[in-house]
Amino acid sequence: MKFSDSFFNRVEKKTKVNKETILNLAEKLRQNDMKNEGTLREVINELSKMTGREVSKEKQDKIIEAVINDKVPKDIDKML
After folding, report:
1. pTM > 0.85
2. Residue 64 in contact with residue 58, Cβ under 8 Å?
3. What does 10-61 look like in DSSP terms, one character per residue?
4. In terms of C-beta density within 10 A (0-12 exposed, 13-18 middle, 19 or more buried), how is residue 40 classed?
5. Averaged pLDDT, 50-59
6. Among 44, 42, 37, which Cα is nearest to 65's?
7. Cα separations (Å) of 43 from 5, 6, 12, 46, 48?
8. pLDDT (tens digit per residue) in 4-35
9. Contact partners, residue 15, CB within 8 Å, separation at least 6
10. 64 and 40 in contact (C-beta within 8 Å)?
11. Which helix (H) or strand (E) holds 63?
12. Are 17 and 8 in contact (CB under 8 A)?
């Protein structure tokens, strides 16, 4: 999936996380098992720190469950 610069600009505006950081996290996920709970928690925690938004354990559990069970929306662009 290829994203446009406008997509990254919208993400950065909303989250204060730049394109390079997003791509680095995506590469980390690509190199590891995206269905691995430990990897997912690590990425969620990194994003939480970067954005300054706390993610509760309950919310982490819901995110991980959604990713593992393929319940993540396919059209990410519409989420922003």
Report:
1. no
2. no
3. HHHHHH---HHHHHHHHHHHHHS-TT-HHHHHHHHHHHHHHHT----HHHHH
4. buried
5. 91
6. 37
7. 22, 23, 17, 5, 8
8. 888 888 888 888 888 898 888 888 878 877 78
9. 47, 50, 51
10. yes
11. helix 57-68
12. no
DSSP designation for 72: S
Task: Bin 2: left if φ > 0, else alpha if -120 < ψ < 50, else beta.
Answer: beta
Specify whether the CB–CB gap between 40 and 63 falls below 8 A: yes
Q: What is the rounded CA–CA span in Å between residue 42 and residue 71?
A: 20
